[in-house]
C-alpha cells in the first residue's frame, strides 16, 4: 500500500534498481545462463550478489554523510486525526505514522550478509528486483524475541517498506492490523511508557480495540535505522 506523504529524501526504491541486478537477468531469477551458477547453485552464494548488497549499504552510508540538515515541517493546526499503521511484533502491538510508510508487502526471503554492520541488520531482501536492507525492529526496540505472540491460520507475517532518511528499508512484522485514523486528542493524552531501552522510541501508550498500543516516535526510530546502516 503506497503512502502519498512518504518522505522524499535520500535513496528511493528506484535508485536501488540502478545496481546491476544480474540475478534477475542471467541468474536464478532470469534465464539461468550465468556460467557461475554451476559453481554457486544459487545467486545468493555468489560474490557478485554479496558485492551488490555491500554497495547498497555503502550508498546508505554515503547518503548519511552528504545529507543536509532538514527542518521538520510542523503539523497543521487544523488536523484532528492522525493515520497510524497498527502492527504486531511478538505479543506487542505498535503504531507508526503512515507518512513514513511506503508499502506493506508479503514476506520475502532475507539473505544474510557475511559481514553484518550492526546487530539490527538482518541482511537484504529482494523487493521487485531491488536489494533493500532488512532490519529487525525487535532488536532496535529492545523487545523480547522469545515470546511466541498470537497464532492462527489467518495470521500472515508481512514486511513493511519504510522511507528512512537515506533510502527504503524493510522490516518484517508478525501481523498487520491496518491503517487507522486516531483522534489527536487521544494521542496527546497518551502517557509515555515502555522500558528504558525503548522509551526514547515511544511517544505514548494508548488503548485501542482492547489492546495496549505503543505509539512509536518515527523521528527517533528512523534516526536509529540510519545509524544501523552506516
Automatic annotation (TrEMBL):
One example of a Gene Ontology biological process annotation: signal transduction
InterPro entries: CheW, CheW-like_dom_sf, CheW-lke_dom
GO CC list: cytosol
Protein origin, superkingdom: Bacteria
Main location: cytoplasm
Pfam families associated with the record: CheW
Subcellular location: Cytoplasm
Domain CheW-like, first and last residues per copy: 81-227
Gene3D superfamilies documented for this protein: CheA-289, Domain 4, SH3 Domains
Keyword Cytoplasm: yes
Keywords: Cytoplasm
PANTHER family for the chain: CHEMOTAXIS PROTEIN CHEW, CHEMOTAXIS SENSOR HISTIDINE KINASE-RELATED
The name this protein goes by in its record: Chemotaxis protein CheW
Record organism: Pseudomonas mucidolens
Amino acid at each position: 500500500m503506497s503512502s502519498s506523504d512518504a518522505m522524499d529524501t535520500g535513496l528511493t526504491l528506484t535508485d536501488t534498481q540502478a545496481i546491476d541486478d544480474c540475478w534477475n537477468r542471467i541468474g536464478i531469477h532470469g534465464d539461468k545462463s550465468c556460467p557461475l551458477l554451476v559453481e554457486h547453485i544459487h545467486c545468493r552464494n555468489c560474490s557478485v550478489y554479496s558485492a551488490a548488497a555491500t554497495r547498497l549499504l555503502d550508498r546508505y552510508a554515503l547518503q548519511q554523510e552528504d545529507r543536509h540538515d532538514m527542518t521538520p515541517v510542523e503539523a497543521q493546526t487544523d488536523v484532528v486525526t492522525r493515520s497510524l499503521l497498527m502492527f504486531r511484533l511478538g505479543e506487542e502491538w505498535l503504531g507508526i505514522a503512515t507518512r513514513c510508510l511506503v508499502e506493506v508487502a508479503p514476506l520475502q526471503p532475507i539473505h544474510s550478509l557475511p559481514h553484518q554492520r550492526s546487530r539490527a541488520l538482518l541482511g537484504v531482501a529482494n523487493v521487485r528486483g531491488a536489494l533493500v536492507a532488512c532490519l529487525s525492529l525487535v532488536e532496535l526496540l529492545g523487545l523480547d524475541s522469545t515470546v511466541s505472540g498470537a497464532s492462527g491460520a489467518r495470521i500472515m507475517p508481512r514486511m513493511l517498506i519504510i522511507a528512512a532518511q537515506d533510502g527504503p528499508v524493510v522490516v518484517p512484522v508478525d501481523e498487520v492490523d491496518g491503517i487507522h485514523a486516531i483522534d489527536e486528542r487521544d494521542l496527546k493524552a497518551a502517557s509515555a511508557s515502555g522500558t528504558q531501552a525503548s522509551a526514547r522510541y515511544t511517544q505514548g501508550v494508548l488503548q485501542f480495540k482492547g489492546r495496549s498500543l505503543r505509539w512509536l516516535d518515527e523521528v527517533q526510530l528512523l534516526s536509529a535505522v540510519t545509524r544501523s546502516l552506516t
